[in-house]
Amino acid sequence: MPLYEHVYLARQDVTTQQVEELTAQFKGVIEQMGGTIAKTEYWGVKTLSYRLRKNRKAHFTLLNVDAPPAALAEIERQQRLNEDVLRYLTVRVEEHEAGPSAMMRKVDRDRDRDERRGERRRDREGRDGYEGRDGREGRDGRDGREPREGREGRGPRDEAEAVETTEE
């Protein structure tokens, strides 16, 4: 039997549990028609490049399928009828990818990168909090400089009141 990679996108307001139920339903149809599912991967909710049926995000799911073409035709027919499925794509492949797919490797790579950045940030800040380049902690100015002398807490109103009190 031919091998396929099948990805479908479910609406963003559908729960993860409902997406798993959809996947189980599609898996049942494929097995009923004499096929097998080699691997199922839930990629999570991702932002779409453009809106699809008023949705900006969608649940992504990958199925590695070993089934006759009629089984995939039935799955695609059911997905066209199901209003929770926004899009689907089926690609015939020579062999299924061993291990996690590229999307799952990307998620792992991003998680590792974020963890490394967090460690570097903690090393740079020190253990007690923010510490600037010169070693002094906590600045009041937006640009990182200390406030000028004689101007702490004075805004335009404070200066006008100060002028009025000296004239009396």
Structure description:
This protein is α+β, with helices and mostly antiparallel strands. The protein has a domain at 3-104: Alpha-Beta Plaits, CATH 3.30.70. 39% of the residues lie in helices and 28% in strands. It has helices spanning 16-32, 69-81, 102-125, 156-167, and strands at 3-11, 36-52, 55-66, 85-93. Strands 2-3-1-4 form a four-stranded antiparallel β-sheet. The model has no long low-confidence stretch (mean pLDDT 80).
In short:
The protein has 168 residues and is α+β, with helices and mostly antiparallel strands.
Sheet with the most strands, sense and barrel status: 4 strands, antiparallel
CATH class of one domain: Alpha Beta
Strand order of the largest sheet: 2-3-1-4
Structural class from helices and strands? alpha+beta
CATH overall fold name of one domain: Alpha-Beta Plaits
Radius of gyration: 29 Å
Q: How many runs of DSSP E, i.e. beta strands?
A: 4
Q: What is the fourth-level CATH superfamily of one domain? A: Ribosomal protein S6/Translation elongation factor EF1B
So, CATH architecture of one domain?
2-Layer Sandwich
The succession of helices and strands, N to C, reads EHEEHEHH
Topology of this protein?
Blueprint: E1 3-11, H1 16-32, E2 36-52, E3 55-66, H2 69-81, E4 85-93, H3 102-125, H4 156-167
Antiparallel strand pairs: 1-3, 1-4, 2-3
Question: Notable features of this structure?
Answer:
single chain, 168 residues, alpha+beta, Alpha-Beta Plaits, four-stranded antiparallel beta sheet
